Amino acid sequence: MRGGGRTGAVGYGETYLDQSSHAFPGALGKLSWKETAEEFRTSWDKVRDAVEYLVTWGLEHRVLGPIRALGVDEIQRGKGHKYLTLVYQIDLGCTRLLWIGQERTVKTFREFFAMIGPEVSAKIEFVCSDMWKPYLGVIGEMCSQALNILDRFHIVAKVNEALDDIRAAEARRIKADGYEPLLAKSGGAFSSGLRTSPPPRK
Questions:
Q1: For residue 10, what pLDDT is reported?
Q2: CA within 20 to 30 Å of 112's CA: 54, 148, 170, 174, which one?
């Protein structure tokens, strides 16, 4: 490693990785692969090989269980409707990314449970997810003993969608009765009057 440290070579397939590659993850937390390569005066390909080597080593030495709580979510990748499924362990005192799968389908999510196996799956107590139906179906199928906690962001979104539907239906009814629909474009004004807590005692 530059700056007085030792330099050696670690065999990896047909390539050799400088021991300084073990410092790459710390840099990658702040820099892109290109910037990391420039910082260490090496090539982008060598950074990629080092990351692949370290990730492979980590997966081979990872201890999966026991897992009490899971979180599952998706992120969009690239253009169009292309997604990755991400599964996290969210136990108290242990939060980590466990798995990434292509797409957000039933088949994809089942692959995660195949990876951890039925013994680990049977001990999961909580799963936090959104309301995407493929996720809900696989959770019920693969770890039915777990409490499925729905993301409150998506619950609020569904409630707002329902309020919009009600507002639009009422606006159409009022217009059909010959009145001017005042709620058609009121947005949050209609729902802002809804009470979220009991009225104060008199």
A1: 38
A2: 54
Which amino acid is residue 45, in one-letter code? D
- Look-up: residue for tokens 């309020």? 163
| 126-129 and 147-150 strand pairing | parallel
Q: Is residue 42 within 8 Å of 9, Cβ to Cβ? A: no
| pLDDT at residue 181 in the model | 63
Residue found under tokens 């390539």: 15
Domain ranges of the chain: 9-60, 69-150, 154-192
Kindly tell me if the per-residue pLDDT of 185 is higher than 50: yes
Beta strands 147-150 and 15-18 are unpaired
Residue 111 CA: distances (Å) to CA of 39, 76, 107, 144: 38, 19, 6, 17
CATH class, domain 9-60, is mainly alpha
User: Each residue of 33-63: pLDDT tens digit?
Assistant: 888 888 888 888 988 888 888 888 887 888 8
| pTM above threshold 0.70 | no
Domain 69-150 grouped into CATH 3.40.30: no
- Short-list 57, 61, 70, CA closest to 120: 70
Q: What is the pLDDT of residues 101-126, one digit of tens each?
A: 999 999 999 999 999 999 999 999 99
Q: Rounded to an integer, what distance in angstroms lies between the CA atom of residue 86 and that of residue 102?
A: 9
CB 148, CB 92: distance < 8 Å: no
